Amino acid sequence: MPKGGRKGGHKGRARQYTSPEEIDAQLQAEKQKAREEEEQEEGGEGAIGDPKKEKKSLDSDESDEDDEDYQQKRKGVEGLIDIENPNRVVQTAKKVTQLDLDGPKELSRREREEIEKQKAKERYMKMHLAGKTEQAKADLARLAIIRKQREEAAKKKEEERKAKDDASVAGKRLQSLSLNK
């Protein structure tokens, strides 16, 4: 059995999840606030006489009571500081026409390093083929030594071949002389 039993150890805390109903209520309250602000900006004080807006204000009174209950549940400085959950923000998708394809594309660190590595390898290969690197110089020196050894071996073979030919020609002459007698 793991240390600390089944319930876990000292790490982590109990998770508190928000129910979907609470999230919906919060979203509706925010929408209602936004509508009220827009109405105040547009209509000003002349909006009091409109019956549709009076119904909305009655509905908003009920939601205000819910908001007050919700605000009473807040602890510490949460009531003083207006905090917006970034996870609840709806992200708008960009249209294809809004995308900036012509602008310079920022490469990641790995991509930059990979490109630099490829360029360095190409530079090294060019210098190596030109014979300017130390490894290329060592290779050329080794090749020169091997060529000399091969030339010497070829000369020796040629001399041995000539010696064999001379010996065989001399042997044939002796045979032909001995047969002619």
Structure characterization notes:
The chain is mostly helical. Among the domains are: about 25-75, no CATH class; about 110-180, no CATH class. The chain is built from four helices and no strands. The protein starts with 19 loop residues before the first helix and ends with a helix.
Rg over C-alpha atoms, rounded to the nearest angstrom? 47 Å
The SSE order reads: HHHH
Main beta sheet, described?
none
Instruction: Specify the number of helices.
Output: 4
Average pLDDT reading: 77
Distance between the termini: 114 Å
Summary tags:
mainly alpha; Casein_kinase_sb_PP28; 181 residues; PDGFA associated protein 1; HAP28
Chart the SSEs and their pairings.
Layout: H1 20-43, H2 51-73, H3 109-130, H4 134-180
Structure at a glance:
The chain is an all-alpha fold and 181 residues long.
